[in-house]
Amino acid sequence: MTAVLDVPDEFLLDLVPSRLIATSQIRGKQVTVMVQNGVVILEGPVDSTDAKDAASGLVWSTPGVRDLCNLLAVHESPG
User: Fold this and answer.
1) Model pLDDT for residues 25-78, shown as the tens digit of each residue
2) What pTM value is reported for the model?
3) Which of 67, 53, 71 is nearest to 9 (CA)?
4) End-to-end alpha-carbon separation of the chain, Å?
5) Is residue 19 situated within a structural domain?
6) Domain contains 18
């Protein structure tokens, strides 16, 4: 079992969005990030399941995240 760092929600609320916008799959999207007791909640539209998965991976790799509720909605552009 891996220990989770005990970090304030405010720290995660600063760090998670900056990490998300650093990736081209999320940059420019209307993604809302909320944090409650170490649980990160993501909402908003993304272009693909790859973008949604990338967001999940970034959040989970952030120190102090206890859980993730990924509510990002995939709106794929027609081919």
Assistant:
1) 898 899 999 999 999 999 999 999 999 999 999 999 999 999 999 999 998 766
2) 0.88
3) 67
4) 43
5) yes
6) yes
17: how many CB neighbours lie within 10 A of its CB? 17
Tokens read off for 56: 């999940």
Do the domain assignments include residue 42? Answer: yes
Q: Quick check: 4 and 64 in contact, CB under 8 A?
A: yes
CATH number of the domain residue 55 falls in: 3.30.1340.30
Are the CB atoms for 72 and 47 separated by under 8 Å?
Answer: no
Structural domains in the chain (count): 1
For residue 75, what are its two tokens?
Answer: 């709106």
**Whole-number pLDDT of residue 41:** 98
